[in-house]
Amino acid sequence: MRKKKTGWPFQEGFIIDGTQETHVFTDYRWNDGSVSRRQLVDPESYDVRLVIVRPFSVKLPGGEDQ
C-alpha cells in the first residue's frame, strides 16, 4: 500500500505596489521530499525581482491552540 502524498505550504511570494499587496505564488514541500510552486499570477506578467518571499507557517504564534 502506498502512502498518500501530502504537502505543506512553506513560503509565499508577494509584490507590494504602494498600498496594494498581490499574492503571486505559494511553495509547497511534499512528504516525498519534492517541492512545487502554485503560481497565482502569470509569471510572465511581473518582474521576479520585485517579489518579497515570506516564510509560511500553519502554527499559531506562541504555540497557542484554538
Describe the structure.
It is a single chain. 0% of the residues lie in helices and 47% in strands. It is mostly beta strands. The protein has a 4-stranded antiparallel sheet, with no helix packed on it. Strand 1 and strand 2 (20-30) form a beta hairpin.
Order of H and E elements:
EEEE
Contiguous runs where pLDDT drops below 50 for at least 5 residues: none
Overall form: flat
User: What is the count of helical runs?
Assistant: 0
Question: For the CA atoms, what is the radius of gyration?
Answer: 15 Å
Binned, the helix content reads under 10%
How many beta-strand segments? 4
Q: Quick check: average pLDDT? A: 88
Strand residue content: over 45%
State the end-to-end CA separation: 34 Å
Give the biggest sheet: 4 strands, antiparallel
Output the strand order for the largest sheet. 3-2-1-4
Structural class: mainly beta
Notable traits:
mainly beta; 47% strand
Summarize the structure.
By secondary structure, the chain is mostly beta strands. It is built from no helices and four strands.
Element layout with pairings:
Blueprint: E1 7-17, E2 20-30, E3 35-39, E4 52-55
